[in-house]
């Protein structure tokens, strides 16, 4: 990271930073009134490393170099980072990062911009932002493609903002883009108490869309009662319950994080022209045999999707849609992320253990200065 700042001749307060150990990695940073913030950037930072595949105990704090932002990136001083199911799978060795991407876990952060690449115009040093990362969120500093960065609404804290990107990007892309959910339609959200689930239910509720949700306890049924009609799948047949509630009609869109074990029931619940979007496989990766004739007669669409496989252009488009359609709702205090529990950055092992227990309702967040 920078150890000196040399004022450029442009007269626009642009500076060249000489990065330690990498003289070729010089970047012109666009710095406005808050340029002094970047003068004290350290050369090293704390990160969470997955030492070997395994349980939460394999997560260790280590020292690493502060990343150098590329021309299209913003460097964020991380104040909070969200915990997500893909982080757990990555830690277990079941969901590796794509080639060329940092192995540091963490898919969403909130913090303050401390440097920007020369192509970045939409953000400046000092801006409070949240971001969908390609990895690297479990760190004191994170470099993120600027088109995946969004401003934090004034009424949200860093902790709340860190709980937004991964789930909001995922829900919007799958429920509204791929699933084409409309305001006059009905949706079923499996895993309703998860981060994805609570986000989907909150957005739908804010938009006036009728929903159902499956959950695994009566406490979760009660917790979601203001947002949806929740069904305890452990004590009730969710298929029959939803058919009863919909006069045997079923639903238009199903967002499924469970996978294999729910496949036939999902198909039974889809209306004509219904859409099933599968984004997880907590209930199994292999689907059982299902009735192809029913699929054909219903003219149903079945799609699998993952955010990790999307390129930067696709993620940028999702960010633009969120800023247009959801950010105004957040600013009004609607569809706010539901925070279950926060942990200090140094207690990341406990945060992962909490995620794996499955009792949480909403999001789990790491706080850097807790």
UniProtKB/TrEMBL annotation:
EC number: 1.6.5.-
Top enzyme category: oxidoreductase
Keyword terms of this UniProt record: NADP, Oxidoreductase
Enoyl reductase (ER) domain ranges (all copies): 54-366
InterPro entries in the record: ADH-like_C, ADH-like_N, ER, GroES-like_sf, NAD(P)-bd_dom_sf, Quinone_OxRdtase_PIG3
Designated name of the protein: Oxydoreductase protein, zinc-containing (Quinone oxidoreductase, NADPH dependent)
Keyword presence, Oxidoreductase: yes
GO MF annotations in UniProt: NADPH binding; oxidoreductase activity, acting on NAD(P)H
Origin organism lineage: Bacteria, Pseudomonadati, Pseudomonadota, Gammaproteobacteria, Moraxellales
């Amino acid at each position: 990271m920078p150890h000196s700042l040399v004022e450029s001749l442009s007269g626009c307060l642009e500076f060249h930073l000489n990065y330690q150990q990498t003289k070729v990695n010089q970047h012109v940073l666009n710095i406005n009134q808050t340029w002094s913030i970047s003068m004290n950037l350290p050369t090293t930072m704390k990160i969470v490393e997955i030492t070997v595949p395994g349980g939460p105990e394999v997560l260790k704090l280590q020292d690493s170099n502060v990343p150098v932002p590329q021309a299209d990136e913003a460097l964020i001083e991380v104040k909070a980072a969200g915990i997500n199911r893909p982080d757990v799978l990555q830690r277990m060795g079941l969901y590796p990062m794509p080639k060329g991407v940092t192995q540091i876990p963490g898919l969403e952060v909130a913090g303050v911009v401390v440097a920007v690449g020369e192509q970045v115009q939409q953000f400046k040093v000092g801006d409070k932002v949240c971001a969908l990362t390609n990895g690297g969120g479990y760190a004191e500093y994170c470099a993120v493609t600027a088109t995946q960065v969004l401003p934090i609404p004034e009424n949200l804290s860093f902790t709340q903002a860190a709980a937004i990107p991964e789930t909001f990007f995922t829900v919007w892309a799958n429920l509204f883009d791929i699933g084409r959910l409309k305001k006059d339609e009905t949706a079923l959200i499996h895993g309703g108490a998860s981060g994805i689930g609570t986000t989907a239910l909150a957005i739908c509720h804010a938009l006036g869309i009728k929903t159902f949700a499956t959950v695994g306890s009566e406490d979760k049924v009660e917790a979601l009662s203001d947002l949806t009609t929740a069904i305890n799948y452990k004590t009730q047949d969710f298929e029959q319950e939803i058919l009863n509630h919909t006069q045997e009609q079923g639903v238009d869109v199903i967002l499924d994080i469970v996978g294999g074990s729910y496949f036939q029931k999902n198909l039974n619940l889809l209306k004509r022209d219904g859409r099933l979007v599968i984004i997880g496989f907590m209930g199994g990766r292999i689907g059982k045999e299902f009735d192809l004739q029913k699929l054909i007669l219903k003219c149903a669409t079945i799609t699998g999707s993952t955010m990790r496989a999307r390129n930067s252009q696709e993620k940028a488009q999702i960010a633009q849609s969120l800023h247009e359609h959801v950010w105004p709702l957040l600013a009004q205090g609607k569809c706010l992320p539901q925070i279950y529990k926060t942990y200090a950055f140094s207690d990341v092992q406990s945060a992962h253990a909490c995620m794996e227990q499955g009792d949480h309702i909403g999001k789990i967040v790491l706080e850097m200065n807790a």
